[in-house]
Sequence to fold (997 residues):
Amino acid sequence: MPTLKSKDAYVGELEQLILLVVLRLGDDAYANPIREDLDRIARRRIARGALYTALERLEQKGCVRSVMGEPLPERGGRPRRYFTVTAAGLRALRESRQVLLGLWDGLEAKLEPR
Amino acid sequence: MTSHLKPPRAAERLLFFALAGSPYRHDILGDLHETFAALCSRRSPAFARWWYRVQALRLAARFILRARPARTKGQPMDRFLMDVRFAARSISKRPFLTAAVVATLALAIGANAAVFGVVDALLLHPFDMHDVDRIVMPVTTSPRFGEKRETVSPADFLDWQHAMQGGPIEHLAAINWWDANLVGRDEPERVLGFAVSPEFFAALDAHAAIGRTFLPEEAIPANAKRVVLSDGLWRRRFGGDAGIVGRTILIDAELWTVVGVMPPKFDFPMRAELWAPLAFDEKEARNRSSHYLTVIGRLRAGQRPSDAQTRMSTIVRQLALDYPAADGQLGAAVYSLGGGMSDVGVPRVLSLWQAAGVFVLLIACANIANLLLARAAEREREIAIRVALGSSRGRIVRGAILESAMLVGLALPAALAVASASLRVMHAFMPAGVVRFIPGWDRMGLSPSTVAATVVFAGIAAAAFGIVPAWHLAKGAVSEALKSDARAGVGPGRHRVRRALVVVEVALALPLLVAAVLSASTITTFITSWQGYDPDNVLTMRVVLPAATYADAGRRSRFALAAVGQLAAMPGAAGAAVGNILPAVDSNAVRSIEIAGRLEADRSKAPRVDYRTVSTQYFDVLRMPLVAGRAFAATDRAESEPVAIVSASMAHKFWPGASALDQRLRLVDGPWMRVVGVCGDVVHDWFDSRNVPTLYRPIAQAPGAALMFAVKTAAEPLTLAPAARAAIARIDPTQPTFDVMTLRQVVAQRTISLDYIASVMAAFAGLALVLAVLGLYAVMTYLVAQRAREIGVRMALGATEADVQRDTIGQAGRLTAIGLAIGLVLAVALGRAMEAGLLGLVSADFRVTAALAAALGLTAIAGSYLPARRAARIDPIVALRSE
Fold:
């Protein structure tokens, strides 16, 4: 039975979703497309403020890292902040996947749609 | 390409400050900017801006309310932001309290802002003209006119103009009424015109849009058949014809040459549509006895109104020496344009309103201070703990003040909406015929200065209700609050403040109620009580005969009497009459008279009376009673003996103790007349005192050019209007009939200012009453809750429900009584002030004041009934256990 190791950060559900979207977006992962994909793929409409708060938390936990891009005229001369998932972030994702899979074990018959 | 479009600046600023604590400040701004740019091209810039504002508000609210204080420490700005967050959170935690405070404030501030909007439009900025501060209005004054401003005689004006050359006022110009009858393609129309000196336009710094204004040589009768049109008249009657200049038009049966058209907004004075040169013939240029000119001028650059006043005083002193008979007693005063043109009563009415508004605002503040005090009491422990943990007292006070400021900030937009809506309502109910005479009424609205004043009112409010709780927090005894339970922390001192606030509320509400009821009863009196004539079922209309075709008195007289005959013969008419002035119309005629055997050596001291020339049926149609003698008869013709009827007040004033009948009097320089009758008095002008001496003459003996007809009808008067117009047209088809309305409507237009005074005062009084009763209710509820333990103990010791109830109501009654005692003093003073200065008809009846005091007291005590019942239902066991 896999357990959470204390040195790994625990990530909540929203944080997991954000990490997964950041992974999917690859080199283009900044706040606007992250929010759009959360809505489109995960069907989660979250407030813009909530997204920034979550990203800030993930960065503090070391699950994501950010780099600044080039200043862009359509952003009023401000650069984009691109996020990438760190090794710790990947580990946290794997951990929670394991936890979920463990919990799913043996329940397929009850939960699979007939 | 839409990338050059920028998000709304204010919203971006707000976000920038709100995000001070976020590490992603610039990223968030950038992300929003990017989506904004995308929306600009995908949807529309307007949508994008709206979207940006919503996003900015939501994000700002989120970051201000939820940001973690841990991140912001040390820097003064950060600390301030933290205080802001704390205040915002404490406001949002109590939505009902916040809503109550914001709604109260919005009403009170909004009402004040609305009144200020009126003051601003009517008193401070009634005219929208270039350099309006430099336009001045010299008027004639005299001890004879009391405090009234009097118009100027032609000869005096010409002397002023001559003596002022090179003086502090340049372009001194005179203005005279000119009711012009315009005949043309359409049916004849009566146009509001003015005869003005050529300098008139220079005095106002106004220039023609097409053509020119008047030349100096056009101020003599031979050259005076020139007109300047208003933009509106030019478009309405002449289809905006660009070639109008140089053409002739038919006015008052004479040809006038159009020399210019004014730009669209120029309609001075009183929505004028037509201007002609004011020209005096030789006889008129020597006339010092008829005062009918309005004079304006322009202060020379660098000169002050006081310079103009000094020079004017010198000029009139010289004139008094040169012409002691006519000008011996005359002086001069220099008004600003706004001050000179507005009714003398307006500033008084407006100051009454503004005073009432401030009263309401103070009551509202007392209420809010009470609510916040209650809240401060609840938070005593929290605050005590914060102080104990090292928070400075200053910071806590700052927090309380910040909270007040935020509440005011929330109330401001709502207050502006209330003000704007009130102004729109006031504007909508004023008839256009009256608006003309109130300079500035059209400009009423949320002007920048009104908005600024609203902010000032709001600031006063924030200070007024914020200081009390803050002061209490500041001196709050920390250790006691911590030592004891929350309830014991509420010392007697705080109760004293809260009680004082209730006393203040009641004391302020009473004078407002009294003022409102006095105003309301005044207008009811005016409208329903006997005014000396019967205004029901009377149709009125006006005609002004042009001098060109009706120069001869005989023609004027024939027209007037023929018209009366036609009107009286209409089916449905029960009689018709004509006069130069009808009761309650917005103009008046005044003449100086001499009484046989009592000639004044100094003619400028000759007594002045209201002057009427009327047809035989006048008294009958208006149901004016004859007190003595006879009415005019058809035998009182131009060539028969000159006769007169005097009003009862005139008879009493000039022949006290004797009969006025067969006494002789004359207009200055007129023929001697014999008094044949005495009639009842008529209230002509509600603002003046009643019983103005009035002289009536038969119209056949003194026919004027301005005629007002009155037709007594069997049914609704307006149904006869078309027939009446046709009747006049049958006598002279080129003669327009105007102001066709019922006498009731005339009275209503005349008293509409009373209506406004009464309704605005009633609104304020209602607001004050509700706020005062709510305040008392809140305080009593709170005191009962605070005293639950004490009441519980008393009931456990044998006090009955009735005892407790009586005690609670008694407490409320004592507070109310103190408030009423103070309020009575204020109310009596206010009633006196209104009686003396404001409305001639108001009599400050002490019984009214006393009755209102009783009513207010009962209402207040009724407001304490619910809390009292709650006190009586306290279960001693529950109350004691909860401690």
Observations:
- The interface with chain A takes residues 3, 6-7, 22-24, 26-35, 37-38, 55, 58-59, 62-63, 66 of chain B (CB under 8 Å).
